[in-house]
Amino acid sequence: MAFDTWLLYLLAATGLSLSPGPNGLLALTHGALHGRQRALWTILGGALGFVGVIALSLFGIGALLKSSLLWLTVLKWVGGAYLFWLGVQVWRSPPIGVELPEAAAPRSGWSLFRQGALSALTNPKGLLFFAAFLPQFIDPARSLWVQFAILAGTFAVVEFLTEWGLASAAHRISPWLKRVGRRFNKGCGGVFMALGAALPLRG
């Protein structure tokens, strides 16, 4: 993967991780309920779940590419339209936040890990998103396995750091999101709309 393509992917992955979603909300909630150390299990589960979703998306796309490179162009344009539509939805979505209780019943690390992984793996929008998102960065002339390692590894690290930040500052971030969350969502939605319009035009 070319370095400039990876940098663009890193920027897009960061925008995705910062945008409202079930795993970010789960990390925020578990950070508030159980503290950031316990929430680490949730975050690790979510990161691993996203690696699984990326694998399903990328190798499904790879199977199509073996049939015809025309599919890559089709996927890029359909994916761009989906990203733009998703941006509109994020733009219009209400701000997220969690109530901050004084205490919560203790839960095992495995239980938190499982909930984080299932949140990523069972969200159909996640699979749709990556099926639309990843073709923009695939080079059919390069190894799909190497690209999978780079794409999945980059996203897992970005998602881990983002969710860790949310969990660590849950008590401060949640009230802030309630106050400025709508403007924040519009910013994230604008990023997705820009990506949806611009990425299919590359190369």
Strand content: under 5%
Gap between N and C termini: 14 Å
Number of helices: 8
**Shape, per Cα inertia axes:** globular
Rounded radius of gyration (Å) = 17 Å
What about the largest sheet? none
Spans of at least 5 consecutive residues whose pLDDT stays below 50 are none
Total count of strands: 0
Given helix and strand content, the structural type is: mainly alpha
The proportion of residues forming helix, as a percent range, comes to over 70%
Number of domains: 1
Tell me, rounded to a whole number, the average pLDDT: 78
- Give helix and strand order, one letter per element, not per position: HHHHHHHH
Q: How are the SSEs ordered, and which strands pair?
A:
Elements: H1 3-18, H2 22-34, H3 36-67, H4 70-92, H5 109-121, H6 124-133, H7 144-168, H8 170-198
Helix pairs in contact: 1-7, 1-8, 2-3, 2-5, 2-7, 2-8, 3-5, 3-6, 3-7, 4-6, 4-8
What key phrases describe this protein's structure?
single chain; mainly alpha; 8 helices; 203 residues
Describe the fold and architecture.
- This protein has 8 helices and no strands.
- The two termini are 14 Å apart.
- α1 packs across α8, α2 runs antiparallel to α3 (36-67) and α4 packs across α6 (124-133).
- The model has no long low-confidence stretch (mean pLDDT 78).
- The protein is 79% helix and 0% strand.
- It has one domain (3-201).
- It is globular, with a radius of gyration of 17 Å.
- The chain is mainly α and 203 residues long.
